[in-house]
Hints:
Number of domains: 3
Strand order of the largest sheet: 18-19-7-1-2-3-20
Pfam family, one: NAD_binding_9
Shape: globular
Largest sheet: 7 strands, mixed
Region (Disordered): 1-21, 639-683
CATH class of the largest domain: Alpha Beta
Protein name: Adenylate cyclase
Distance between the termini: 33 Å
Oligomer: single chain
Domain FAD-dependent urate hydroxylase HpyO/Asp monooxygenase CreE-like FAD/NAD(P)-binding: 26-207
Structural class: alpha/beta
Number of helices: 17
CATH superfamily of the largest domain: FAD/NAD(P)-binding domain
Amino acid sequence: MPLSPPPLPSSASAPSSPSAVTPSLVVIGAGPRGTGFLERIAANARSLYAGRRLDIHLVDPYPPGGGRIWRRDQSPLLWMNSMAEDVTMYTDDSVALAGPVREGPALHEWAAAAGSESGDGGDVEDVLGAERAALTGQSFPTRRLQSAYLGWVYEQAVAALPPGVTVHLHPTSALRVSGPRGGRQRVWLAGRAEPLTADLVVLTLGHLDGEPDAQQRELAEFARRHGLLHLPPDFTSDSDLSALPAGEPVLTRGFGLAFVDLMVLVTEGRGGRWTGSDQEDGGGLVYHPSGREPVLYVGSRRGVPYHSKIGYTLDGERPPLPRFLGPAQVDALLARDEPADHRRDVRPLIDKELGFAHYHRLFHAHPERTRGGWTAFEKAYAAATGGPELAALVAGAVPDPADRLDLGVLDRPLRGRGFASYDALQDGLRDYIAADLARRHDPSHSADLAVFYALLSVYGQLIRLGDAGDPDGRWHGFFSYLASGPPGPRLRQLLALSRAGVVRFLGPDTAIEADDERGVFRATSPAVPGEYVEARALVEARLPDPSPARTRSPLLRALYEEGAAVTSSAGLVRVDPDDGRLLERDGTPHPRRFALGPFTTARSSGAFTRPRTGGPAFRQNDATARAALTLLARPRPAAPVGPVRPAAPAGPVTAAAPAATVRPESVPPPLGVSPSAVSSVER
């Protein structure tokens, strides 16, 4: 695949009669999910839409490819939490899709092919060129480098579109979608008086902001009254961390990837430095404070960080997945007269699948730690109904309890555990993190990696179950905690910061109280009864709740008010799991609106994935692209677009300059971008 895309198709070359109205597809969100969808449009268009004209409008205030989360202008200290060889935007023959497979480079392969190119876009491009040249498959890339890869994938997708298909880029935000179910839709944009008209609309919004809930509003008001600092849930790279006081305690609630970003930005980002190696266990890494760091007191429900990324590959035979939760089992659940219940019907199959992968690997790769043969164990395991029967089977076949899969302990490792003091808690947590690091980088525990593959397999099946797949978001949280944790070097840095006294652990089930009498925030944990930590600053190190009831997206809020269906527990927008069409409250799929991404009931494990792992998002993108092209290819009946109502007033929009595309649209520069920054936009 060439690194420089061929000339982009020109709308002037598109065959059509001058009087014909060109069909129009509006894609709202041009980040990785929108880019992946566009790649599938290009892959399927020649077979499903050959010889026809089509206008594709991409709407996003951020540059296409990376979008907001993976934009270029963020700290170079922020990494991906995946190795470069585990990141691809391209399909392979492991993806179950109806459209054509179009293979392409994973991130490290793209970097190797492009690494010899010198930067020609200023200091940032020169730095990215150096990063590309130094990248290996086992490197954890910066997010800025991932942004460059995603931008390249976007350019390739545009270049692969057939003649007659024209891309129009709108560097602004969508405010509202209106229009009758049977007619063309109107998409209202910030900074544009007239709406776009669309035959179909596809929402690929990515991660969204949310308004604070009642508890966060109370904490914010408490902070205002007492002159304290309260940072609500947010994307850490977007938060203003400059107000966090140097040398003073800061309570931090949340121990996932948002905390890791916070930890990096207020330590190394404030001038601290490292000596020793972050690639080795044993405490060799040392942090040297700059004196400008706050002291982070971190706690959460579990009280421990997400599990480290696994630092080895799986050799030999992989577990034959799916086994207990595959298409046949999902078909049976969907065929029931009554809807499947997650706790009763789905979770037991998930647990059985994870256990199957674990024990298959243990018996095949480490047979000296098992008793009996795999064939007999597998037969008995398949017949076991769970509970005591399954526990007895495993205990008889796997002598060492450390080799048995205990999902409850994995999920809550500190449940019921107490510590004599906060100092004892620090020692205990450092021991736990060091042990997790050692295990996750030790191939003798390769059953853990087999479980990781089972997690990916399960996620691909749950998408089809809609609400029953993950009704309250707990499964997604468990998946992220177990399979989407930080790189090993980040946890070694966490240990070094703990030894330096810059990070302190609060323990599990952390509770935050607002003490009006003393005018401080107070944190407690049942793991250290009778002790507490007080501070004048509180950071909620987690993502905001983007449910329609609290979303800051006027587009999603308007769709909800108009009748889009939403789950009652997790607040996800309901979509048809087969093709991503938005469902209305009566369960009817909207004929002209689709949605893909983490805000929907068909959310997957990510917009990009590890090669040869089935890529659930790729399968969804393909199904939606094929459905959209099929609908667009049908003769369009004359139907009204509905009465024109002006869009709601637009709030401030910030944006980076748009990347080159076929036809950037004539819209006013977004606020915060100088006219010169978009001087290349066609006007």
